Each structure stands twice: as C-alpha cells, then as structure tokens.
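User: Second chain of the day. Same drill as before.
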Amino acid sequence: MASFMIRWLVAMLFAANLAAAQVAVDPERTSISDGWWTLEVAVGLDQITPYRVFTLDEPRRLIIDVEGASFGDLDASTLLSGDRAAAVRFGPLRPGWSRMVVDLAEPLMIAQASMTAVGDGVDLTIVLERATPESFAANAGAPPDPGWDVITGFDPKVAQELAQSEDFVVVIDPGHGGIDSGAVRGGIKESDLMLLMATELAVMLKAQDGVQAVLTRDQDIFVPLSARMTLAREVSADLLISLHADALEEDDARGAAVYTLSVGGGSAAAQRSVERHERGDLLAGVDLDAADDRIATALMDLARAETGPEARRIADALVASMQGQGVLLNSNPRREGQFTVLTAADFPSILIEAGFLSNAQDRAVLATPEGRARIARAIRDTVVLLAR
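Assistant: Same format as last time:
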C-alpha cells in the first residue's frame, strides 16, 4: 500500500499550481493497449492534476481516479486494443473527481504510474505487468485515504442539528449516480430520473410541519451504498427511502412496488432486482472487501426486532397510499429483497421501485411531473402519519 500512497502524494505535489479550470481529456491520446507482456493505459490531459491508481480483486479491475477531469468525450468502444483488458467504463465519481474502471482479463500488477509533459499537456501513463493470482490479490486494494468515502458537501453542523431535532427525519436516497447510471431506456437514465424525483419529494416533505428531508446525493455523482447508510445514521434518520426504477429484457412488466428487507433469500425475481441495482458498487470500483466488512459490522448489530416490523408496516401503508393516489401498482406490489440499503438495524428503511423503464407506458408516466407527484404525495401522506 505504501507505493500507492507515494504515487498519490507525488501527484498532489505535481498539482500544487493546478488551475481551477476543468481538466480536458484528449481522446486522441487516450488508449488501452497490450504490450509484449504488459497492458498500457494512456490518458491524455491538458494540464497536471491529482490522480490515484490502484487495483481491486474479485473481479480484477484497474481503477484510475482523476481530479477535475471529465471522460465524457471518450468512446469506450474504441479505447480497447488487445486481449488483456476485457472492458472499460468511466464517469463522475464524487464532486470534482472522475473514475475510469478497466476490467482485467488476467492478473496484472501496476509496474509504473507517471504523469509526463507532452506538448501543451500531460500524459498519465499506467503500465501493468503480468502477475500470479496470489501476488495480484496480495497487492490489490484501495489506498487508505481518510474521508474518501464520506459524502462531501454535507455540512456536519446540519447533520448534528438534524440528529438533535425532534422533527421526523427522512433520508431520501436517489439510486445510482455518477459512473453508475442504473437502467437506461428510451434516452432516460434511472440515476437522473430518481434524482429529479428525490428532489421533488424533498421539497414536498420539507413543506410539512415536523418533517425534515435529506438527500444522499443532490447531483450526478457516485455514492457508495455504505456511505448512503452512514449519512442516514449521522442525521439519526427516522426513515430511509431508496428510490429506483426497474428494467427487464421484456417490456410487459409495469407498476410500482415497495421492498423491505428479506430475512431469508427472497424470491428469484427479487434477487435479480438486487443484482441489477447493486452492481453499481462493483462497476464503479468500490473495494468490495471493505464494503463487506462495513455491512457485516452493521449486521452484527441485529437490532431489527423493532425496525424490521416497522419497515414492513410503513411499506404496507405506503402501498395503500399509492393506490389511493392512483399510482399504477405492480401485480406484486409488496416485495422483500436483500438490498444493502435495507440492512441497517438502527432505522427502518424501504426501497421503492417507481415503475419499469423497460415499459414505454411506465416510462412516459415517470417522465411527467404529475406521474412522479402521485408517488411523492403517497410518500408524503405516509410520512405525515408517521410523524404524528
């Protein structure tokens, strides 16, 4: 890990005079290609900027974080050349940072990571060499960086005030975000739609006496699942509501559904939904070993004797409220699944599938303010009853 931290510190020193302007990425100087026994990743930038690189195991991935850069002009389909990299994806990670994730087809260790001047810009070059599975696993892992997984932009004073407030605090969690767009159908990203819906819901809830609403993200950034739960804990949430929209290969499934935590394995359909929504941490390069440790710690606290039944009562009430507001419900509107955001033992949590983006009619409804408002009003009415 020391070598990773050295790269991090050196990059920070190089960036001492970094301008505040956004860092441009040059597609012509950006590539992922095989060498004789190596894999080389080159990222062309217009200026020096902080970065960090590391590998993760299970599955094997190379992670490249760059401050101030946007990878939006890159075309993933043209970047790969060779067989050692299986896939690549990129997107915003957190405020001011973007991430590139390269899936590795074989164990490859970082041999070199450097930023060198090229004309008016710089090239970030990472060279990986072949390694044994054992040595790769031993050297994989995110470099320690206190605060990296903390949700930035949330005022600790506000968190403290909310935690001490007698108001009913609702944490609204717009699913996905940043590098993880969730389902995409008909030109609509689940991450964008849920952020819009969460913002509208927060305004509606804040207008109620004795109710406070907090978003786990208020922009298009990636927030790890564990960090979403941490924020809810910091504000002493009375309820966490995670907002999603589903998508299937078939287009006939329709309607909203509300999930609570499954004590057992849950149905096969519920498990597939969990896998669809929670692949984001893997896709975005989260250190899954560390995340598992945090989740295991939460599960050690099994104080769900109260929060589990309470979440189920809330979900039942919400389904009834949705029906009263004219929300089209799925044929199976009350479901259970093992979603990470539902595992907290210290506050009740529910996950709402607002509809199916794979269905054109659901998609059209959710694209309208009134379609979203019906669900928001149902949530508002349920929360008001809870807050009394």
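The chain has two domains: 2-139, 156-387.

User: Great, on to the next one.
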